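Hi L.,

You mentioned the student needs an example of a multi-chain input paired with its predicted structure. This one should do, with 210 residues in total across all chains.
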Amino acid sequence: MNLILLGAPGAGKGTQAEVICSALKIPAISTGNILREAVKNETKCGLEAKSYMESGQLVPDEVVIGILKDRIAQDDCKNGFILDGFPRTVPQAEALDKMGVNIDKVVEIFVPDETIKKRLSGRRVCEKCGNSYHVDFKPTKVDSVCDACGGKTVIRKDDEPQTVSDRLKVYHEKTAPLKDYYEKQGKLVTVVGQEEVSETSKLTLAAIEA
Ligand code: AMP
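Structure written out for the whole complex:
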C-alpha cells in the first residue's frame, strides 16, 4: 500500500507515519528527515537545502523530487511506503504520477493553525538521534536529555515562532491545493487531529482500512 500523509507542519504527520509504519510494516519516508540528515552531513544537496529550511521555505522541487525518487527505489519500499512531507506542491504530486507511482490513499491530518503554533513552540528534538518530544505533552524523563540516546534536546531552528508562521503560510499557499488534487482522484480522507495522540492514531488507522 502506498500512502501519503498530508497536513500542516506540526499537525502530527510524523507520529502518525510511525503508527502506520508499525501497523502495516511499510517504511515511513520523511523528506524533512532526509534533508536534515543531508544538512548535518554537509552533502551537496544539504548545502543547497539549508537556507530554505532554516527560513521555513520549501526546498526547490527538483532537489526534493530527486531525493524521493532515489529513496522509493530502495528495496524496503517494494511492498509500499508512507510519504510524510512529500508531495508539498502540485508539481511534486505530478512528478509522482509521472514516475508511475500509484498512490492508494492520501490521509490529511487536520489541525487548526492556532493549535499548531502552541504545539510547535513546545516541541524539542534530540540533536543526536532526532527523536521528538514536547515540553507539555511528551516531556523527556530528564530535562533536555533524550530518553532514547542521552543526547541533548533542543528547539528546532524552524520551530521559532516567526518561522512557524512562515511555514504555515507556505503550507496554505503551496501544499493545501494538494487536497483538491487528490480529492479529484477520489483518494483524500481527512482525519481531525485529537488532543490525545492515541485517539488520532485510531482514526488514522480506521481511515486507511476503510
Ligand atoms: P518537515 O520536517 O517535513 O517539516 O520538513 C522540514 C523542512 O524541509 C521544510 O520546512 C522544507 O524546508 C523542507 N522540506 C521537506 N520536505 C519537503 C518537500 N517535499 N518539498 C520542499 N521542501 C521540503
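You could point out the following to them. The radius of gyration is 16 Å. The CA atoms of residues 18 and 184 lie 27 Å apart.

Best wishes,
N.
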